[in-house]
C-alpha cells in the first residue's frame, strides 16, 4: 500500500497503525485486490480495503480483452464510488450494506475502505442455499428495490446490470442464436418501458450475499453495476445463480410469491403511494423477459455455460413469441 493511502485510512479510522490480515480475493480480470486489514489504536478491529489499479496487461479469463471492456470496468469503479458517496446511506437494516469509511482516488488507483461485515456477524458465505435462505436474499432485494423505487440513478449506471445490452455489443455480435439476436433490442426495450423503475443491484448473485450464523440476517456487497431498471432483472439473475433448470421449474413460482410479499410490505413501510397490484402485474409479466435478457448475454459471452439450459431456452422462446 502506498504511503498516501495508508495515511488516509489511519486518519479516517482514528487508528495509529494498520497491518495486513489476509487477501479476500483478486478483482476480476486483474484490476486489483480486496484485502482485510487490522487496525491498532482505533475503535474498529478490522476494515476491508478494495484497492483498484488499472492493469498494465489485460487478462480477461474468457478472452474479452478489448478497449470497450476496459472502459466498462473503469466506469464500473466510478459508479461504485458514487454509490458509496451518494446513495448507500439510503439502505436500512432490511437491505444492509457495509458502511463506507474512505473513498480516495490517486492517479490510476482507487481505494474504497469498508466496514468489515465479518467482524459484525455477517461472516458466512454460501455456495448453495436452502429455499428459506433464498427467500431471505429475495427479501433483501425487495427492500432494496422499494427503497429506490422511482429515484433517478444520478452518478450510477443509467441502466444497471453488468450484462446490459448497450454495454455488451461485442457479445451480441458473436451470438449464434439469430432469433434471440434479432429480438435483443425489443427485449431490452420492454424492460426499460416498465412504469416502475428502481435501482437494481446489478450483480445479485449468491456470492455477493453475506449471512449471519443463524441464517436470519444478510448483507450484500459489490455495487459496481448498480443503476436504474426493473427489479425483475435482479430477481431473475439471483434465482438463476442458485438453481439448476429442474429446480427453477419447480420453485420459481413460490420464490416469486415470496419476493412480491416482501416487496408489498416494504413499499407500505416506505409510504411509496403506488398501486401495488399494478406494479406486481407489471413486474411478474417482465420476469421471463428479464430472464431472457440475461440468457441473451450469456449465450454470446460463454456459449458453453451451465446456465444455458432447457428452462432458459423455453422462457426465451415464449418471450420472443410474445414480442
The number of domains: 2
**End-to-end span in angstroms?**
53 Å
Give the class-level CATH name of the largest domain: Alpha Beta
Mean pLDDT: 93
CATH topology of the largest domain: Aminoglycoside 3'-phosphotransferase, Chain: A, domain 2
Rg over CA atoms: 20 Å
Q: Could you name the CATH homologous superfamily of the largest domain?
A: Aminoglycoside phosphotransferase (APH), C-terminal lobe
**Total DSSP E strands:** 9
CATH structural architecture of the largest domain: Alpha-Beta Complex
Sheet with the most strands? Answer: 5 strands, antiparallel
* Low-confidence parts: none
What is the topology, as strand order, of the major beta sheet?
1-2-3-5-4
Helix content: 40-55%
Query: Count of helices?
Result: 9
Decide which structural class fits the backbone: alpha+beta
| Strand content bin | 15-25%
Shape: globular
- Element-level helix/strand string: HEEEHEEHHHEEEEHHHH
What's this, in brief?
This protein is α+β, with helices and mostly antiparallel strands and 323 residues long. The protein has helices at residues 3-13, 67-87, 131-147, 169-173, 178-192, 232-242, 245-269, 276-301, 310-322, and strands at 17-26, 32-40, 46-53, 100-106, 109-115, 198-200, 209-211, 218-220, 227-229. It has a five-stranded antiparallel beta sheet with strand order 1-2-3-5-4, sandwiched between helices.
Amino acid at each position: 500500500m502506498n504511503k498516501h493511502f495508508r495515511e488516509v485510512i489511519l486518519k479516517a479510522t482514528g487508528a495509529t497503525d494498520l497491518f495486513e490480515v489476509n487477501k479476500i480475493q483478486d478483482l476480476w480480470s486483474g484490476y486489483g485486490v480486496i484485502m482485510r486489514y487490522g487496525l491498532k489504536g482505533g475503535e474498529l478491529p478490522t476494515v476491508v480495503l478494495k484497492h483498484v489499479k488499472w492493469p498494465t496487461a489485460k487478462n480477461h479469463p474468457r478472452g474479452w480483452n478489448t478497449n470497450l471492456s476496459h472502459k466498462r470496468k473503469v466506469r464500473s469503479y466510478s459508479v461504485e464510488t458514487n454509490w458509496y458517496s451518494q446513495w448507500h446511506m439510503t439502505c436500512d437494516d432490511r437491505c444492509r450494506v457495509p458502511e463506507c469509511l474512505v473513498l480516495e482516488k490517486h492517479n490510476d488507483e482507487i481505494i474504497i475502505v469498508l466496514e468489515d461485515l465479518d467482524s459484525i456477524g455477517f461472516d458466512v458465505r454460501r455456495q448453495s442455499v436452502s429455499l428459506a435462505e433464498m427467500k431471505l436474499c429475495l427479501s433483501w432485494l425487495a427492500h432494496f428495490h422499494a427503497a429506490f423505487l422511482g429515484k433517478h440513478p444520478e452518478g450510477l449506471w443509467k441502466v444497471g446490470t453488468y450484462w446490459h445490452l448497450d454495454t455488451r455489443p461485442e457479445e451480441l455480435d458473436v451470438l449464434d442464436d439469430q432469433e434471440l439476436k434479432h429480438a435483443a433490442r425489443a427485449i431490452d426495450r420492454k424492460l426499460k418501458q416498465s412504469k416502475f423503475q428502481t435501482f437494481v443491484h446489478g450483480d445479485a448473485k449468491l456470492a455477493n450475499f453475506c449471512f449471519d450464523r443463524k441464517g436470519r440476517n444478510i448483507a450484500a456487497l459489490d455495487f459496481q453495476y448498480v443503476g436504474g431498471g426493473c427489479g425483475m432483472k435482479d430477481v431473475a439473475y439471483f434465482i438463476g445463480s442458485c438453481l439448476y433448470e429442474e429446480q427453477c421449474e419447480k420453485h420459481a413460482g413460490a420464490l416469486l410469491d415470496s419476493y412480491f410479499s416482501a416487496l408489498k410490505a416494504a413499499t407500505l413501510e416506505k409510504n411509496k403511494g403506488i398501486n401495488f397490484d399494478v406494479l406486481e402485474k407489471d413486474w411478474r409479466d417482465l420476469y421471463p423477459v428479464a430472464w431472457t435478457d440475461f440468457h441473451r448475454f450469456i449465450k454470446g459471452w460463454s456459449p458453453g455455460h451451465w446456465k444455458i439450459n432447457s428452462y432458459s431456452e423455453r422462457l426465451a422462446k415464449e418471450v420472443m413469441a410474445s414480442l
